Amino acid sequence: MHRSLFLVGGTLLLLTGCNASKTPENKEPVLFTVAGKPVTTTEFNYVYNKNNSQPDNAAAKGSVQEYLELYTNFKLKVTEAEKRGLDTTTAFRKELEGYKEQLAQPYLTEKNVTDQLVKEAYDRMKQEVNASHILVNVAPDADPKDTLAAYNKTLELRRRIEAGEDFNTLARSQSDDPSAKENSGNLGYFTALQMLYPFEKAAYNTLKGQLSMPVRTRFGYHLIKVNDVRPAQGEIKVAHIMVRATPGIPKADSVVAKKKIDAIYNRLTRKENWDKITAQFSEDASSSTNGGELPWFGTGRMLPSFEEAAFKLTTVGDISKPVQTPYGWHIIKLIERRSLPAFEEMESYLRSKVAKDSRSELNKTAFLKRIKQENNFQEVKAAKDFALSKATDALTGGTWQYTASDKEAKEVNQSLFTLQDRQYTVKDFFTYAQKNQKPIANASPGHAMNVLYDNYVTTSLLNYEREHLESKYVDYKMLVNEYRDGILLFQLMDEKVWSKAIQDTVGLQAFFEQNKENYKWDTRADAIVISAANKDILAQAQQMLTTGKYELVKSRPEPILFGAGKDTFTPETKEQLTALSDRLLGDPLLSVTLTGNADSKESSGKNANLANRRAQQVAAFLKEKGVPVNRITATTNKPKTVSAANRNVSFTLFTSDLKGIEETLNAANPLAVQVQNKRFQKGENKILDEITWKEGTYNLEKDGRAVFIKINQILPPGYKSLNEVRGIATSDYQAYLEKEWLKELRQKYPVQVNQAEVQKLTQK
Predict the structure, then answer these.
(1) What backbone torsions phi and psi does residue 10 show, to the nearest 5 degrees?
(2) Nearest to 663 by CA among 576, 587, 549, 536
(3) How do 590-596 and 632-636 pair as beta strands?
């Protein structure tokens, strides 16, 4: 979790950015002090200007004087945290080091190389390549002999293909890519930034119909056959209607979802209004209110099935048949097509992708080369040869240890390489090697030691540069300070404000009572709104409404079975009944009718009341589990023909939730009826807003649907209860606690402001 750097009245202001500006040598005058600790004009000016450069940050648009007040409050909190020693804990130091590592990343790159890679990626995105490959596995750190063997095997496969053997057949039999057995190595169409960089580079540099030379990635060596090259499809904007159906949901729910999407599709094919259908039925909350519209996207940026269906749409306004993805079912409507956006529009996206892509290794190589040059990297060959000569077989097993003899003490302590005036000794390298070694199968000791040496040099260069970032870049230094203060304040703000407001229930209640005027309802309507596909369905819904109890057919539990002449439970029966009792206890609106059954042979003698006993046994079990008596009804049926299936207790579930009307009437058509039952405020329901708010019932038509409204009560303006506004009231209480805490801090730590410096800032 990112911690706040500048906490203002509970608002978190994130101060970001990294310009490669050098730290000024001249000290700036002090702007103000808190408990004698100075805050310089440079520090304040940096933070103030950075926040003012963000136009959407309302808190940063105030005057210098207002901002000075906010920043002083911030520094008062930091001072309190330091006085309490929060900056000395192990947890604090560990967290700060983690953030420093993240903050350092933009400074540990080579900008000109990044620029080239971004432009190259954009140019390649103008085309899409369809390619197949054959993979020969070899680990990234494999011994040279194994690497050579894999290369030669790949080269031999290439010779066989060039000699006339079928690529697809060889891919199925020889490729180490498991999917090749199914797809003959075909990867379909792709564009830049969707494959590992070496693979992408080779694919784009190979002509259509041609075969590449062996290409090395972290998976091994690839042979790439380019099947086709086409201009980029560009980007499209679509809208969609979604019905959720995630993998693993109950089969009954999956069937309902499919019926619902099919019903929606049928209505759309009859040219019903897309936006209205979307608003009524789409289950993508983020897009349903704007006609289901999604952001622009191109090849490889959506789920494959969704993307394929979307790009098949050719005419604006066309809609797809229902398409399934892991999220559910979608109907897609084409809104607009466009070619690849201009470079300026995509640059930010491309930079983000390049930073995470395998091509970043090129950037790292160039960066390390520059750091070597800037810091006069000097390697001592004799010392390196000595260090590498100490590799033994234990190194490949990850158990290598080295203890210098008296004779070798001088060699071990000699300089291996230098950066500026810092020496890195053979001993330092051996310590690193012992700590970072790991087993490497089929590798020679010499190769393992060379890998460790290269990694040690890279690590040393990066660490050296990290250590000097604060002296080289003012932005980095300021960012580190901001994160440091943010980490300190998080714990203190949680203690004094955030968690305190939640845990102090007495204080929250008192604050709420003192400020009740801030928490009032406007006029509300306690109403039921039923929207139906036609008047007949609406009439059925109104009839059901009068009963107040609705059968749940779809989720009816399976009957429990008994042995012939038996009314006792098996372990499986008890498990089934426990699940039913849990369901009833979890939903107080549910009730159940138990129907005892017996076959015709069980209807006489001692078994004459067996069906009733079975029903009563089940009822007693549910009561013991805590289900209220008034939610259980036990009945019996007349004996039926002799059959094991007739020796049971069956269940009928009812709910008093009006959503039960939906479940019943939507069985055949999932769009038949929608029911809302709540207290509405003005503007919350468009249909309700169109009628006069008076108690009574109303029938009308809206957007081709029959609508019934029953207003049970008009609630006048009144005070809200704390439970109704707990979230808002808690937030307000937090602001109050922070304000009171700042009063205490100002009394505890004197603040002195250099008004002459403030005057200079306000005149800029």
Answers:
(1) 85, -10
(2) 549
(3) parallel
Q: What integer is the mean pLDDT of 192-204?
A: 94
pLDDT in tens, 587-618: 999 999 999 999 888 877 667 788 999 999 99
Q: What is the dihedral of CA 302, 308, 314, 319, to 10 degrees?
A: -80
Homologous superfamily of domain range 549-655: OmpA-like domain (3.30.1330.60)
Domain ranges of the chain: 235-339, 376-472, 549-655
Is the predicted pLDDT of residue 581 greater than 90, yes or no? yes
**Topology of 235-339 in CATH?**
Chitinase A; domain 3 (3.10.50)
What is the rounded CA–CA span in Å between residue 386 and residue 407? 13
Contact, 134 vs 150, CB < 8 A?
Answer: no
Residues with Cβ within 8 Å of residue 609, at least 6 apart in sequence: none
Cβ neighbour number for residue 715 with a 10 Å cutoff:
15
**DSSP H or E stretch at residue 746:** helix 726-748
Question: 717-753: per-residue pLDDT in tens?
Answer: 999 999 999 999 999 999 999 999 999 999 999 999 9
C-alpha dihedral over 26, 31, 36, 37, to 10 degrees? -60
Integer Cα distance of 488 and 677 in angstroms: 48
Element (H, E) at 655: strand 648-655
557 in Cβ contact with 648 (< 8 Å) = no
Tokens of 457: 């040099």
Burial 157-192 (b: 16+ CB within 10 A, else e): bbeebeeeeebbebbbebbebeebeeebbbbebbbb
Decide if pLDDT at 2 tops 70: no
CA 651 to each of CA 36, 251, 637: distance values in angstroms, whole numbers, following the listed order? 77, 20, 12
In the structure encoding, which two tokens stand for residue 54, read together?
Answer: 């963000």
Report pTM. 0.55
Chain CA centroid to CA 101, Å? 22
CB count, 10 Å around CB of 305?
Answer: 13
Where in 351-492 does DSSP place strands (E)?
378-379, 415-419, 422-425
